[in-house]
Specification:
Distance between the termini: 64 Å
Helix content: 25-40%
Radius of gyration: 21 Å
Order of helices and strands: HHEHHEHEHEHEHEEEHHHEEHEEH
Bound molecules: pyridoxal-5'-phosphate
Structural class: alpha/beta
Largest sheet: 7 strands, mixed
Shape: globular
Strand order of the largest sheet: 2-8-7-6-5-3-4
Number of strands: 12
Number of helices: 13
Oligomer: single chain
Length: about 350
């Protein structure tokens, strides 16, 4: 009888399964979730509308209604194609599966969203991280060199970037897209929190795609991402999509939510205001050395030398979970990332930071 080690590759068995922290009972400021729920009347309307769904039937394999609503509410260019995924994660997986036979590597700035690397490795595709500059901006000449020498199949650029919150100049991005022989995917997961977008530029470059998700605007539980690109690329990628990858409840609930876009938009606006306020207040904390400019729903901040673990643990002890990105080292040494919560959650987080004292060594 075969055991896992007989049939699965060593490199696959050497990986650890992707884990997230246990957040039970904690204030969750670690995963860029929207902290707000819907007004009671809207929630009741949504629940009532769900009763019409026939769970004994398969979902619409093409999710026609949802795609139509996405097209009309999200300014998807008319002549572009649109592919849906069970979260952006599934779209990243489909993209990598599509190109893995080419033998060409996947490239992304580092640090950036971890799933590009996790999924490339899961599918046994080489992943090449290209270090950002010390201010977390793109090192365009280094990219030119890597794109030239490594001939990647896909370049993923999270924009704004996670975990930094930074956007890049259009000139830098234009240079990357033009220099990249493969596909460039601009991952706009944080589009609700910035004016910067490349969605309208799909079609301007034959190898440019823009990916978005509903996760950061309050619908992380639905798992819905979409990829916009030229029709020839999107039609080709359709071949990798499982027929019913978007379930009935998600198709229906996402359509419902997008039809009440004003709620989503006003929540995003509150988060933006809170972000600016929290950034200002964080800058006054003695233990905080630097707060990075963010165009997303989180803030990356650098703390006093060697204090990141202690601050992370103290927050956790007092019931607040953030993300300790300092464990990734290199450019992220001494850095922590906090998701913008409700005003009350942010105030509680801030108070713990203000009261945190660095052990005195002198
Ligand atoms: C959070 C995030 C996503 C979201 O992935 P989903 O699978 O859609 O929840 C995608 N890209 C980036 C850069 C993110 O930070």
């Amino acid at each position: 009888m075969s055991r896992p080690c007989d049939l699965m590759s060593k490199s696959l068995l050497a990986k650890s399964p992707y884990m997230t922290s246990d957040a039970r009972g904690l204030i969750k400021l670690d995963a860029m979730e929207n902290p707000y729920s819907w007004p009671g009347s809207l929630e009741r309307q949504w629940l009532e509308s769900l009763s019409g769904i026939e769970l004994n039937r398969y979902p619409d394999p093409l999710a026609k209604e949802l795609i139509a609503i996405l097209r009309s509410t999200q300014a998807i260019p008319e002549n572009a194609g649109c592919l849906l995924g069970n979260g952006s994660d599934e779209l990243i997986q489909m993209l990598i599966m599509a190109v893995r036979g080419s033998g060409r590597p996947i490239v992304a700035p580092a640090p950036s969203f971890v799933m590009y690397e996790v999924l490339a490795r899961m599918l046994d595709v080489e992943f090449i991280p290209v270090p950002l500059a010390t201010d977390f901006d793109l090192d365009v000449s280094l990219f030119d060199q890597v794109l030239n020498e490594k001939n990647p199949s896909i370049l993923f650029v999270a924009h704004p970037n996670n975990p930094t919150g930074l956007c890049y100049t259009d000139t830098s991005l234009e240079r990357l897209v033009a220099a990249n022989p493969g596909i460039t995917v601009i991952d706009e997961a944080y589009a609700p929190f910035t004016d910067r977008s490349w969605l309208h530029r799909v079609g301007e470059y034959p190898n440019l795609m823009v990916m978005r998700t509903l996760s950061k605007l309050g619908l992380a539980g639905l798992r819905l991402g979409y990829l916009v690109g030229t029709p020839d690329w999107i039609d080709a990628l359709e071949r990798l999509r499982l027929p019913y990858n978007i379930n009935s409840l998600t198709q229906h609930s996402a359509s419902f939510a997008l039809q009440h876009k004003e709620i989503i938009d006003s929540q995003a606006k509150s988060i933006l205001l809170e972000r600016e306020q929290l950034a200002g207040e964080l800058r006054t904390c003695a233990v905080v050395e630097h707060v990075y400019i963010s165009e997303a729903n989180f803030l990356l901040f650098r703390v006093r030398d060697g204090q990141a673990d202690a601050i992370f643990q103290e927050l956790r002890r007092q019931g607040v979970l953030i993300k300790n990105v300092s464990t990734q080292g290199k450019l992220l040494a001494d850095c922590l990332r906090v998701t913008i919560g409700t005003p009350e959650e942010n105030a509680f987080f801030l108070q713990i930071l203000q009261e945190f004292t660095v052990p005195d060594c002198d």
